[in-house]
Amino acid sequence: MATTSNVTDPVETTLKEKEDPRITGRRGKSKSKDVAASMEARLERMERAVADIGMQLEDEIPSGATLEAAVDDLRGKALGALNSMADTLRQEFQRQLDQVFAEPASFRQYELCFVLNLKEILRSWVQL
Fold first, then answer.
1. pLDDT tens digits along 1-44
2. Which of 1, 77, 85, 91 is most exposed, with minimal Cβ within 10 Å?
């Protein structure tokens, strides 16, 4: 009579350990043999993806010092533009003010000419 031994073949055991922990179930869908191992692998992939995204964000988002420097640069440019506009407005205001003060002077000249002409007319009448 043949007896079976309880000795396991080490090659067969090693092959079973290396197999994918998933088996194919009904309708061709895979089913997990070891849920914990499957979840651990998913968790590792998720952690790597989160770490990659974190590194990308660190590269793309500027630091506080960079932002402060950009704000200072923008402030300087804005003040320069405002000062330039203020100078332009100041010059235009001065030009218009000069015109306003020049008009009475020209009226005085016309007034003086008118008075002189009037005096001549009166003299000519008196002589008649």
1. 455 555 555 555 555 555 555 555 566 566 556 777 888 889 99
2. 1
Best CA proximity match to 23, nearest among 10, 36, 34, 39: 34
* 3-class DSSP state of 69: helix
Tell me the C-alpha distance between 104 and 100, whole Å: 7
DSSP string over 5-49: --PPPHHHHHHHHHS-SEEE-GGG-EEES-HHHHHHHHHHHHHHH
Sequence-separated (6 or more) residues with CB below 8 Å from residue 77:
none
pTM over 0.85: no
CB distance 31 to 25 below 8 Å: yes
Interval 61-115: pLDDT, tens = 877 888 899 999 999 999 999 999 999 999 999 999 888 887 777 777 777 788 8
